[in-house]
Every structure is written in structure tokens, then in C-alpha cells.
TrEMBL record:
Principal cellular location given in the protein's record: membrane
SUPFAM superfamilies membership: Periplasmic binding protein-like I
Protein name: Receptor ligand binding region domain-containing protein
Domain of life per record: Eukaryota
Organism the protein comes from: Elysia crispata
Gene3D superfamilies recorded: 3.40.50.2300
GO CC term, one of those recorded: membrane
Keywords noted in UniProt: Glycoprotein, Membrane, Receptor, Signal, Transmembrane, Transmembrane helix
Membrane topology type: Single-pass type I membrane protein
Domain (Receptor ligand binding region) ranges: 7-70
InterPro entries per the UniProt record, alphabetical: ANF_lig-bd_rcpt, ANPR/GUC, Peripla_BP_I
A Pfam family the protein falls into: ANF_receptor
Localisation per UniProt entry: Membrane
Length: 169
């Protein structure tokens, strides 16, 4: 059975970049410009939206920064078992199909978040609830006392190890 091999995401971005550049060069030539004039070619890329083959919508602003849209996906795994007979022998074959489901899309140009599915997002941990907004000890570990921190546990463990080594040897 032949499986489709998808190109890497970085390869698709390079492909889309070359297509954007080629489009800008073609537009420069169509207006009678010089394709060796880098500023003329770049000016055809700025303030423009391209549609990449694999990257989707690519929007470049007036200073050459790319707006990146974010798509939140969940991949569902479907497993099927196929039972076939070959010359009166049963054969157990299984196949796996992975299908993506789009939950939300953030469009950076308009700063809008659109939910595509009305159901609750299935968080894999924390009993299906979203993770907390802050870590338990805070981002700078200021909410935890020194005795509860990982650093003091590591220091105690290393000290205990060397204490045992000194006593034995």
C-alpha cells in the first residue's frame, strides 16, 4: 500500500516565498520596470496578500512584516481492522486514518478570532479543563517558598549523595 508523503512545512514556506518573488518580478516587468532593481521588486511585495499553495493566506504589511494567521486543529485518529481471507486463511490488517478538525482561526490582519466548532475544546490533561493562566509558583517562582522549590531539593539530594560517599569511602 502506497502512502502519500507530505512535504515539510519549511519546504512549503520556501516554495511560497519563491512564488511571491516570481509574482513581484512579473508585476515589475509588466509595468516596464527593471527586474534587477531590488527596491522596485520589493515594493511589489509590500502591502499585498498572496495565497500560498500550502501556507494559505500570506499578508505582507507596508514595512515587509508578514501577518501570520493561526489555526487551532485537533487531529482525530480512526482505526479500522480489516479481516480478509486468503486461501481460507484469515488475515488481520489494521489501518489508521488521521483527520484534522479545525476548532478556531485567528486572522492577524483583522485581529479576529473565529470559532469553527461549537463544542468544548477537548484538553488532553487536567480532566478536560484548560490549563491555568499562571503556573502554580508564578512565572518568576515568587509564589512558592524556598523549601518547596526544585533547587533546594536538588541541593539536598546532591549533598546527601556526597555525604554517603564520604561515610563509605
Amino acid at each position: 500500500m502506497t502512502e502519500a508523503i507530505l512535504p515539510s512545512s519549511s519546504l512549503s514556506r520556501y516554495y511560497d516565498a519563491v512564488c511571491m518573488y516570481a509574482t513581484a518580478v512579473n508585476d515589475t516587468l509588466a509595468e516596464g520596470g527593471n527586474p534587477y532593481d531590488g527596491l522596485a521588486v520589493i515594493s511589489k511585495i509590500w502591502n499585498r496578500t498572496f495565497y500560498g499553495m500550502l501556507s494559505g493566506k500570506i499578508t505582507i504589511n507596508s514595512v515587509g512584516d508578514r501577518f501570520s494567521d493561526v489555526i487551532v486543529l485537533r487531529f482525530w485518529t480512526h482505526r479500522e481492522k480489516l479481516f480478509r481471507t486468503k486461501k481460507n486463511k484469515s488475515v488481520n490488517q489494521s489501518s489508521t486514518e488521521i483527520s484534522p478538525q479545525t476548532y478556531a482561526v485567528y486572522e492577524s490582519v483583522s485581529s479576529t478570532l473565529t470559532f469553527k466548532v461549537a463544542t468544548k475544546f477537548p484538553w488532553p490533561y487536567n480532566k478536560g479543563e484548560p490549563p491555568p493562566d499562571q503556573p502554580l509558583c508564578g512565572f518568576a517562582k515568587k509564589k512558592c517558598s524556598l523549601s518547596d522549590s526544585d533547587d533546594s531539593n536538588v541541593v539536598a539530594g546532591v549533598s546527601g549523595f556526597f555525604g554517603v560517599v564520604v561515610m563509605i569511602g
